[in-house]
Amino acid sequence: FREALRPYDVTDVIEQYSTGNVDMLSRMKYIQARLDKVLGTPKSIDSYETGPSLASRICKIEKQVDALDLKIDQLCQLANSVLDLHIRQVSIIRTPSPIA
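That's the Potassium channel voltage dependent KCNQ C-terminal domain-containing protein sequence above. Prediction below.
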């Protein structure tokens, strides 16, 4: 308990505060960089960076998946209609015609 009652050294307090502040600022910078990577940063006219952001790439992939889903549905409907037509033709051929 005697250690707890000892007065603080002002230089130690300032040094710990500075260290904590630098650590906090570096973490904020890291989080901002990750957000910029995900969301994309507003680019100025003279910027050479032209790559799309992660969010726009994900949206593009979602649109492509939706288009593929629609095409697969259309192909399934086409396959079902061809199968139905084939079954009807086979049943007509196998049905004996009545002799008059």
